[in-house]
Amino acid sequence: MEGRTAIVTGGGKRVGAEIVAALLVDGWHVIAHVHHEDDKVPDGAVKVVADLAECDCADRIFAAAQGLPPVRLLVNNAARFAWDGFGEFSPSEFDAHMAVNVRAPALLIERLAASHFGTGDVLVVNLLDAKLVAPNPDYLSYTLSKQALAGLTEIAARGLAARRIRVNAIAPGLMFQSSGQSAENFEAMHASNPLGRGVEPHDIVAAIRYLVAAPSVTGETIVIDSGHSFLGRERDVQFLETP
Description:
Radius of gyration: 18 Å
Order of helices and strands: EHEEHEHEHEHHE
Family: Belongs to the short-chain dehydrogenases/reductases (SDR) family.
Helix content: 25-40%
Number of helices: 6
Structural class: alpha/beta
Protein name: SDR family oxidoreductase
Organism: Sphingomonas hankyongi
Distance between the termini: 45 Å
Strand content: 15-25%
Keywords: Oxidoreductase
């Protein structure tokens, strides 16, 4: 993939950093977006700082691509994840989730499309959540924002296909211990998946590599959850009793 640039939002930690590191290994020039100036990114990546809640975030991020090869991959990985729910619904959290988890990806896709002239394959990968397959009411605003991002994935795929811009999504299950989740619960939830294993960052990397190498695939969502959605659980995993 020499001569191509990838942009990864939330590229300084957790699965975002793993994606950045893997793309660097694959020969991409990588722009790793972070929220704070002191956030670190994998060696070899170009760091760009932007607040995804701001309407100029796409311009800030794409400005970092000046002088680099054309942007051919956009991974919308960064997300806001904060609690609210029925009985505790927060209008401010709803607005914040929609700004970061939906509006920012839409702005970035729009900016990518404006810079692409139909020559060569371009791929957008939106990170969703496997809970959309079997939704529960916990983290209400977060869930609604991911449902909206799923809608954006299909609409953008349909609207941009003629310009050779593919838009797909990956919906991972639990990968990292959540704030407030015990280590015991985290391990137990992984072990209780039908496949008997958890989801790891390298599973997401493998899916992105597949999508890069599959130029006829667009408008699709790959669910990676070790079969967790088959269980139809009514609460977020951190609120379930440990088996």
